[in-house]
Amino acid sequence: MRIDSDSLESIKERAAARDMTVQEYVVTTLQRDEFVERFKAAFRETMELYGDVLAEADAADRVEAAAQHTDGDADTDAPPSTESVAA
């Protein structure tokens, strides 16, 4: 691989800052970039296959959470009483 001198110096500085060799830095950077691309592709594929199911499950979870919120003590969300208690 050929790298111009300015880019190589930048790569060397970045590698040194991470206590890595240039080779380790370049390979790690390429692997991270490749992982991101594979992750995006897997996400797109998952959404194409299961997007409707996931949306339905999300909607059901929201309904359940709302029902649990309203089933609790009705006064939990009420502001504190301002009435004074006679001693």
Describe the secondary structure blueprint for this structure:
Blueprint: H1 5-17, H2 22-71
For this structure, the quaternary state is: single chain
Number of strands: 0
Report the major sheet. Answer: none
Residues in helices, as a percent range = over 70%
What does this structure look like?
With about 90 residues, the chain is an all-alpha fold. It has one domain. The protein is built from two helices and no strands. Helix 1 packs across helix 2.
Identify the notable features of this structure and list them briefly.
2 helices; 87 residues; mainly alpha; single chain; elongated
Tell me briefly what this model is:
The protein has 87 residues and is an all-alpha fold. 72% of the residues lie in helices and 0% in strands.
